[in-house]
From TrEMBL:
BP term (GO), one: DNA-templated transcription
One Pfam family of this chain: Zn_clus
Descriptive protein name: C2H2 finger domain protein (Zms1), putative
Organism: Talaromyces stipitatus (strain ATCC 10500 / CBS 375.48 / QM 6759 / NRRL 1006) (Penicillium stipitatum)
Compartments where found: Nucleus
């Protein structure tokens, strides 16, 4: 018995149960997470284990006379071919597969080893992975991307999961499971950080042992033992939910019940009182006020604040890096910024009650964040009355700038995780306030100046400003991409610097880094213009002297652009295309219609036939469209070159910026499909899911 216990080196970090094999531990974690990775191809019923799926197939009513597919094969899994993967179709793994034979497509399974246990050479496998994204058929890839509109497009984004939609939930649960599976991953009651394994877990197909099967039968899927050991009514929480934050060392072990009675920190009490003070200005009855007070005291304890801040940097910071992690201190940042970070992180909590209460209180946190002087009209009126411009203090004041960052983060949180009413309010009203405040602070012209060399802190603060206006413009374009909402910032307005490399920004001392550059010497507008230039940069002569001096560097701009830069550029390109279609294309259509009518009268042709045209024929000679096509082609060339120069491990660690090619495919779709103008013109502003409506463009290939 002692020997058997000693051999169980793989231990669950939630219930502390031991296992002798890592695949048994991985399978066990599914019981805690609720993930069901095995689904029936006929009725879509999902199962946590492959052997349960095998038992289901003989009794599946919708299977009919179809043969039972193979499940749980040993060794290396059989790969789907490229065509089936891009079009999200079932592939039988044959060489060639039946799906490609039926559609007369070239199947890339040809030449692959038929034995699934034979691994491909590293060079072949890496080339297949690279070609999967960039060299597959555009129609197939777009079909896959737009399969479920925005939900499928952002499936692997680390967006704050929303309670009323499925976006990202499966990915977040999967990610937490991956980080929880590590050999001998036990947590003592000290502050030693666990050795988290961040690699993707492999498929596990071994049949369970008798002990595992017996426990699964006895406990069932909804038994109390399946739930997390976190007490939702206390201040304790599971260690695996925390990321070791730079300036904090939260307890990684399961704290004792006495921690509930520990005194709260000053920032915790201050945050609760600040939000409550704003909440009392809302007309509500005493019962509602009591509920809000209880919820805030439950949610904003010191331990939970530390946890939520850690979740923010774990999930969201990697996507939009506008806060400097080493210098972020919960006791020193402004209360509005702390509130925004905390509520963003709370959206990622795997504890049901925490996430529910956070969403319940999210609107009140928004009221508090946007009540600061940066967004307050009362402050503007008072400054005007006493004759002191409000912009003078806001432009250089670090406190005001942090409150602006808080407003941006709150808009993002409400748009991706809030209710429909809150989402619309954030997009229509709150973001306008953020853009207006950014303009008052002159962030659109923010650049690194020589005086920033005096101290490293000055450079970091200026870089935070540059990054903030960059992500603000990115969100502005994203509203157009996802909801067809007009942009509020224009490309010529963005005379700010491009942000530095993320590896430099995340360091405690950027000046000491080998890759450190004091300034990129390239503005956002310069980079956008570069996409429309030819290889020799001949178009630089059409700009004024100020732009000509910048464009003199244009031959080297393309080689210095980062993944973040390219992600921003494709968003701006998409918005530019959308604006062209909604403003210029209808005017050109009217002109061509008038011209055809004149030709019809002169030639006595059939009037109905003369009015038959397509958007493609209208815009084929449009010089703006020609330049857009050239810019998209240039962006793709720069992207392929950039991707080839980034190491695989560095690429895997990036956030959703690395999906920029998907945005290029949607932009390319708009300028190549003949009904795109009609679709865009008939689409309402602030539509629920623009990508879902764009799927109609995929149906005209055979027209």
């Amino acid at each position: 018995m002692t020997k058997q216990t000693a051999d169980k080196n793989f231990r669950c970090n939630i219930c502390q149960r031991g296992f002798t094999r890592i695949d048994h531990l991985k399978r066990h974690h599914l019981r805690h997470s609720g993930v069901k990775p095995y689904s029936c191809i006929f009725c879509s019923e999902a199962f946590a284990r492959c052997d349960n799926l095998r038992d289901h197939y003989p009794d599946c009513v919708q299977r009919g006379e179809n043969p039972i597919p193979e499940t749980g094969q040993r060794g290396r899994r059989r790969h789907a071919c490229e065509s089936c993967t891009s079009m999200k179709l079932r592939c039988d793994g044959q060489s060639p597969c039946s799906s490609c034979v039926k559609r007369n497509l070239k199947c890339n399974n040809t030449g692959r080893p038929k034995n699934p246990n034979i691994e491909l050479p590293p060079s072949t496998e890496s080339s297949l992975l690279k070609n999967e994204e960039l060299e597959s058929s555009d129609r197939g890839s777009i079909n896959f991307l737009l399969n479920g509109g925005t939900d499928s497009f952002t499936e692997r984004f680390r967006l704050p999961p929303r309670s009323d939609r499925a976006r990202g939930m499966q990915y977040h649960t999967q990610k937490e499971l991956e980080e929880a599976t590590s050999p001998a991953n036990t947590y003592a009651l000290d502050t030693t950080p666990p050795n988290i394994n961040t690699g993707f877990f492999s498929e596990f197909d071994d049949l369970s042992t008798f002990e595992e099967s017996f426990m699964s039968f006895m406990t069932g899927p909804f038994a109390e033992s399946q739930k997390s050991m976190v007490d939702p009514y206390s201040g304790t929480f599971a260690a695996h939910a925390l990321l070791q934050f730079p300036n904090q060392e939260p307890q990684l072990g399961m704290a004792s019940d006495s921690s509930f009675y520990e005194p709260e920190s000053a920032f915790s009490s201050a945050l609760v009182q600040a939000i409550l003070a704003k909440t009392w200005t809302v007309n509500m009855d005493a019962k509602s006020q009591q509920e809000i007070s209880s919820n805030l005291h439950f949610l904003l304890t010191t331990r939970r604040i530390q946890k939520f801040v850690s979740l923010y940097f774990l999930y969201w910071h990697n996507n939009c890096q506008l806060l400097h992690p080493p210098s972020f201190n919960m006791e020193q940042v402004t209360m509005p910024l702390l509130a925004a970070v905390v509520f963003m992180g709370a959206m990622y909590s795997n504890e049901e009650r925490e996430a529910y209460v956070a969403r319940r209180m999210l609107d009140f946190a928004e009221l508090y964040v946007f009540s600061t002087d940066v967004f307050s009209y009362e402050h503007e009126v008072s400054c005007t009355f006493i004759g002191r411009p409000a912009t003078d203090a806001e432009r250089k004041d670090w406190v005001h700038f942090q409150n602006l960052q808080a407003g941006y983060l709150m808009v993002v949180t409400q748009y991706w995780a809030g209710s429909k009413v809150s989402r619309n309010r954030a997009m229509e009203a709150r973001f306008n306030e953020v853009v207006a405040a950014a303009r008052r602070m002159e962030l659109t012209r923010c650049k690194h100046l020589p005086e920033d060399r005096i101290h490293e802190t000055l450079w970091i603060q200026k870089e935070c400003r540059i990054r903030t206006i960059n992500v603000i413009s990115l969100l502005d374009c994203a509203f157009s991409f996802y909801s067809n909402f007009p942009c509020r910032l224009t490309p010529p307005e963005l005379e700010c610097d491009l942000p530095c490399e993320e590896s430099v920004f995340n360091c405690e001392h950027p000046f000491a880094q080998l890759k450190f550059r004091f300034t990129r010497e390239t503005t956002v507008y310069d980079a956008f213009q570069h996409l429309f230039q030819d290889e020799q940069g001949a178009s630089a002569c059409h700009h004024d002297q100020h732009h000509t001096n910048h464009c003199a560097h244009s031959p080297s701009i393309g080689t210095t652009l980062t993944v973040t830069d390219m992600f921003l550029m494709i968003h701006m390109l998409y918005s530019y295309i959308n604006s062209h279609m909604t403003v210029l294309a209808p005017i050109m259509r009217m002109r061509q219609l008038k011209k055809r009518k004149e030709q019809s009268t002169a030639n006595s042709e059939n009037h109905k036939g003369s009015l038959t045209f397509t958007c493609r024929s209208i815009t084929s000679d449009d010089p703006v469209l020609i330049s857009i096509r050239a810019a998209l082609s240039r962006w793709r060339t720069l992207w392929l070159d950039l991707k080839s120069r980034i190491p695989a491990d560095e690429w895997a660690a990036m956030g959703f910026m690395k999906t920029a090619y998907n945005f290029w495919q949607v932009a390319q779709l708009l300028i190549t499909k003949k009904h795109s103008v009609d679709v865009i013109m008939q689409m309402e502003v602030k539509c629920e899911d623009k990508l879902e409506k764009l799927k109609v463009l995929l149906q005209d290939d055979n027209d």
